[in-house]
Amino acid sequence: MARAVYPDGMTASGSAASPLPRPADRPAPRSLARAGGAPRKQIVAWALWDWGSASFNAVVTTFVFTVYLTNTDAFGGADFVSSQLGWVLGLAGLLVAILAPVTGQRSDGSGRRRFWLAVNTGVIVACTAGLYFVYPQPELLWLGLALLAVGTIFFEFAGINYNAMLLQVSTPTTIGRVSGFGWAMGYFGGIVLLLILYFGLISPDVGLFGVTSENGQSVRVSMLLAAAWFGLFALPALLMVPEVKRTRAKGVRVGLGASYRRLFHEIATLWRTDRNTVKFLIASAVFRDGLTGVFTFGGVLAAGTFGFSSGEVIIFAIAANVVAGLSTVLVGLLDDRLGAKRVIIGALIGLVVAGILTFVLSAGGQTIFWIFGLLLCLFVGPAQSASRSFLARVIPAGQEGEVFGLYATTGRAATFLAPTMWAIFIALFGSQVFGILGITLVLLIGLALMLLVRSPRSDIPA
Predict the structure, then answer these.
(1) Are the C-beta atoms of 263 and 78 separated by less than 8 Å?
(2) How far is it, in rounded angstroms, from Cα 218 to Cα 195?
(3) What residue ranges define each of the domains in the chain, with the CATH number in brackets?
(4) Please, are residues 111 and 51 in contact by the beta-carbon 8 Å criterion?
């Protein structure tokens, strides 16, 4: 495994190394087009997968289908369904944590990264469409939960292949803006689809195609449209982004046992030769869970502490995604000029400050939440995007899927932090508003860990 070299001429393990030159083609070109590489149309095709995938994140797991399950008495009541949902998705997360690095590793050398992205995307689309058959009947709860779990697992697998393809459509001088463009497309895709479904099917008494809310029809038809949305917008990436070059001999198959033996060997090697990357994986796992917590509990906090109605929560959610999407695009340009680490540090500082001010000024009511809640969202997207671009800059060639698999695994391993700290602070102080401090503490710990990570030369502007 190649060693990362830092500005002082030392490798991550502390031994001397010949200084590596900085990228010769800085300053970065202002266009998204990759100099000597992927044209603009391939970058857009790659990002459209993110646009389409928002149908699963925003519609299935966040705002529509899971709400349908927990708020429909026929499934067993909110408390029971919420508990079962947590257990099922927790099991799905555990399976992802176990299988993600091996899944990425096995696709790296086969020259079939695009193929596996197509397979995983197909499973997600099928699971989403299958949710149409989850009528409000007690026995169908488990069908809904099973489809959610399988879709979640394959969504994480698809994300590994998709993230690894970032290096196929960018260069060291454009990777930040391309990554930010993809993240922003995901935010905007979710906004557009939510607006279509809300005003076209869910809100009206009689929606498009004569759909009503009887037997959960409006939600179930929304799942069909969400599936079609993802399938349609995934096609450009599957058809236009070139396949990764094969590095393993044709016909050679890697068994599961051999994959794990190689995985453990590479982890040990990574720790010995590039300990800085391991530190980043740990730091990013912590602060990414804090970022997830901002969105996960934002709506709950808006309704419970600041008195937002259900409609106002949706309006805030749309505004939050707009702010996060725009800031991700704009800060993606700074990523290539300032370096991903500086963007991450700046975003985390902004998040911590905004979180503390939201808590301190919470007596100010909805106006305070609108101001500082949107300020939080301003920093979430850039931190997520820069985290991906930082890792992409330090991955040894040919190991993109494997290391992004570790990235997914470490992220999954830390998913308990934000919910736990949220619950602990509320239990200790007896008020939901103190949950803000729990999420802020997770972000602060992630910031402290990120300060210990050193920037390789590829992340330092000329």
Answers:
(1) no
(2) 14
(3) 38-241 (1.20.1250.20), 268-462 (1.20.1250.20)
(4) no
For residue 435, the cross-strand partners are none
Query: Which pLDDT belongs to residue 259?
Result: 65
DSSP H or E run through 133: none
Helix (H, G, I), strand (E, B) or coil at 447: helix
Strand partners, 10: 16
Q: Is the pTM higher than 0.85? A: no
Residues 351 and 338: their CA atoms lie apart, in Å, by: 19
At 82-141, the pLDDT tens digits run 767 777 877 887 787 777 666 766 665 556 788 889 999 999 999 999 999 999 999 999
The count of other CB atoms within 10 Å of the CB of residue 51 is 26
Are 1 and 400 in contact by the 8 Å Cβ rule? The answer is no
For residue 44 the two structure tokens come to 């857009």
Give the pLDDT confidence of 325-357 residue by residue, as tens digits.
788 777 777 776 778 888 899 999 999 999 999
Distance CA 253, CA 350 (A): 47
Count of C-beta atoms within a 10 Å radius of residue 360: 13
User: Residue 44 above 90 pLDDT?
Assistant: yes
**Pairwise CA distance, residues 76 & 86, whole Å:** 15
Q: What is the DSSP string of 177-235?
A: HHHHHHHHHHHHHHHHHHHHHIIIIISSSS-GGG--SGGGHHHHHHHHHHHHHHHHHHH
**SS3 assignment for 70-113:** HHCHHHCCHHHHHHHHHHHHHHHHHHHHHHHHHHHHHHHCCCCH
User: Per the structure block, which two tokens stand in for 100?
Assistant: 């993600």
- Comparison of pLDDT for 392 and 52, the residue scoring more: 52
Distance from C-alpha of 279 to C-alpha of 42, rounded to nearest angstrom:
33
Six token digits for residue 190: 């979710």
Least confident of 74-78, 176-180, 238-242, 374-378: 176-180
Joined tokens for residue 17: 């190394």
Q: What whole-number distance in Å separates Cα of residue 281 and Cα of residue 267?
A: 12
Establish whether the linkage from the previous residue to 27 is cis, with ω within 30° of 0: yes
Contact 60, 194 (CB under 8 A): no
In whole numbers, what is the pLDDT of the chain averaged over residues? 79
* CA dist list (Å): 373 to 147, 300, 301, 313, 347: 32, 12, 10, 12, 14
Cα–chain center distance at 244: 22
